[in-house]
Every structure is written in structure tokens, then in C-alpha cells.
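User: Predict the full complex structure for these chains.
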Amino acid sequence: MTIDAYLVALERLLPRIARLRVLPEVREHLRDAAAAHRASGLSPLDAEVAATGAFGAVEDVARRLGADLAVRESRLAGLLAVATTVFFVFPLYVVPENTLPPAPWSEKPRDIALLQDVALASWIVACLLAAAAMLLAWTRWFRHTAPVLAHATAAITGATAVTAAVAVRWFSLTPATPAWALAAPLALACVVACSAAALWARSSSRRLAVPTR
Amino acid sequence: MTSDRLRGHVDLLLLSVLEDEQAHGYRLAEALRMRSGGAFDLPEGTIYPSLYRLERNGLVASRWERVDGRRRRVYRVTSRGTTELARRRDDWHTFARAIEAVVA
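Assistant: Here is the predicted structure of the two-chain assembly.
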């Protein structure tokens, strides 16, 4: 099998999450091995076949290579999802509920109560999905982590949007609301979001540090 | 020697090579083959899962570097890896002596 054919087969068999780290490294390894075989007198084609043969059966290599990396990435992503959810619940739900001045109504307007119920339900769904993603990542079903994570991310986004709508509606009906009460939770949410994004980007950049040709 | 017989020892072998030199994957496979006199002719792809596991456990670290004009991922043993290597080496010597005492 040539190096290109080997890499194509390996890419097809590897978990998507493991490809970025594995393929560039395997390609460089195979090129080194083929160069050594050429130096010992083999033709370029025979050298590539010898290099891929010495690397191991592609199915076996994919199974061994993919599992460890996928588990590691899945666990990191699962933990991030749970951390993001928990940290967002605090600034976007708990803080406004407990720090705002007394509301000017004896009975909470029906639309706010409804929005709050939707927001709470959204956060519960987001938390459950994030927790499910994290649990999956620590089991032998780790390959199902990615789709659950995608749903968790969508749920977090939806919950944030509904919570923001609650906050805006609440503040508009509470004239005495100090500016910090509006700004603090949103700023905290931004800091947490940026920190999570930076952490994820740092992790991704290390995985994406592929060699230039 | 088959890879089955080496299973469980690859981490120790890799740490031992990396203790002497930083190396990329192919260089490691080559060093294992040469230092064992050709006895450890493993499928070369089998060293990477071990490297990734060692890295995940903080025993080795890696980064892309330009070597001989090409960029390669180079591994080095960490201080924690050096400590772990000493422990595993002691375990191995104890085990080898015990086997030798029974088999010889």
C-alpha cells in the first residue's frame, strides 16, 4: 500500500476527533521510513510499500491510535460543557434573581413567570445534556459524546437567550434597577465564555499544530 | 520478538530511549530496533498509542519542531517521567532477577 493510500484508509477509520493529531504525525513517520528504504536500494514504490507494511495493518493501527486520543478529547469536551453550563447558571439566573431590588409588583407578570419557567427548563435540559456528554466520555460509548455535546451546546445557547430575555423584561419593569445589576452578570458571563473559548482554542491549536510542507 | 510478548513493556522501553535523547516517532522505532539488536521489530504504529498515553499521564511532553529541514513531533521525557522510569526500571530488574533465578 502506498503512503497516500494508507493515510486515506487510516483517515476513514479514525474517529474524527483523533484525525488532526494523528495523520500529520503518521505521514511524517511513513516518509522517514520510505526514505530509509530508498536509501537501502528499494524503488520509490517498493519503499512506500515497505514503510506502510512495517507500520502495521491499517485497521489495527486505527483502532489503537484512535481510541486513546478520542477518549482524551471527549473527556475534555464533556468537562468543558458541564463547567460552562454551571458557570452560566450562576451569572445568568442565580445572580439576577437574588440581587435585584424588590420588584414593583405584588404578583409577578404572567409573561415573566412564563419566561422564567422556560429559562429554568432550558437550563435543566442543558445541564442534563452536558452531564450526559461527560458521562459518555468516561465510558466505552465515548464515540457518542460528540453528537450529545452538539445538542448540549444548542441547549446552552437557547437557555442563555431565554434567560437574557427574562433579564431584559425584568429590568424594563423595575426602574430602580442599578446599572451594575444589569452589567455585572452579563460581564461575568462574558468573562466565563471567553475563558472557556480561550481554553478550548488553546487545546485545539495544539491539536491543529500540523506541520507545513 | 512478537508484539504480544512486549505488551506491557513498551512504555518502559520508550521512556528509556527518551531518557537519552529527544526523538520523533520514527527515530524512536529505529532506536528500539537498533538497541535491541533487531529483536524488537514491532509494527511501528504500535508505539504511538503508548506515546499518547505517556503524554496524557504527564510522563512525556511533545511539540512540533523542525528536524533535518522537516517539521516533526518531537517527544521528551518530563521530570515526572524520569521519576517514573526509575521506579519501573527497579521493578523490571527485580522481576528479571526473579525470572532468571527460577529459569536458569
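The two ends of chain A are 22 Å apart (CA to CA).
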